[in-house]
C-alpha cells in the first residue's frame, strides 16, 4: 500500500485534546510471525540487546513498518531519548510535544477515522503528527514480541499520577546504532495500576484477518504473544518493576527532533 501521489507529505490537524493512547541498502529479513512475512530493514541490523549501546540522553528513532515495507511506504517514526540501553533491552522516553512521522489516510487524516470494515483495505499516506499527551516511557525487552509503555495521567512538576501500562504487541526489535525497527501487531494489552488486564483492539485484529492484512494463523500467534505478555506482567518481570513507575525524565532533556523534518514539504 503506497502513498497517494498528491498526499505524499501532509501535516495532520492536532486534536483539540490529548488522545488516550493513540533508503539506502535495504535487505529483507523474516518476521517472527508464523508463515513469515518479509519486513525491510537497513543493512547491519542486530537484535535488541546486542552492543554497541547508546548512553542516557542520546536520541534514537523508533520505527514501526508493515510487513513487506518498501522505501517510500508509510511508516511510524518516533524520535525518543534513551533512558537505558543494554543487554536487557531499550528504555526510552517519548516527550510531550514530540513530532513523529505517522501513517494516515490519503486525505491526511488519522487511520482510525476510516470505518473498521475498510480500515485494512485503504492505502496509507505519510503524515506528521504531534504527541499531545503526557510523556510515555517505552521499554522494549530484548527478544520480546512486545514493548511496554508506561503512562501518567498527570505529569506536572512532582505530581505524577501513574495511569497504567500499555503492552504494544509487535515484532522483536532489530537495531542499528541510532534506529530500532519493529512491526505493529494490532492487538494490545492494557493493564491498570491495580493490575486489572484488558485486551484492546480485538475487533481490529479480526478485521485485519477478514481484510487480508493477517492470516488466521498469524492472529492466533499474536493472541499467544498477548498471553505471554500478561504472564510477564504477573511474574513481575523487569519492564513492570516499581522503579519505572517512579522514574522521571532528566529536566535538561530537550524534545528530540524528527530526523529530516526540515526537508519535508506539503503538496
TrEMBL record:
Keyword set includes Hydrolase: yes
Keyword Hydrolase: yes
Chain spans, region Disordered: 1-20
Keywords linked to the UniProt accession: Hydrolase
Organism: Microbacterium foliorum
Superkingdom of origin organism: Bacteria
Pfam families: DUF402
Organism ancestry: Bacteria, Bacillati, Actinomycetota, Actinomycetes, Micrococcales
Domain DUF402: 114-236
Protein name, UniProt field: DUF402 domain-containing protein
InterPro entries assigned: DUF402, FomD-like_sf, Ntdp-like
GO terms for MF: hydrolase activity
Biased composition (Polar residues): 1-14
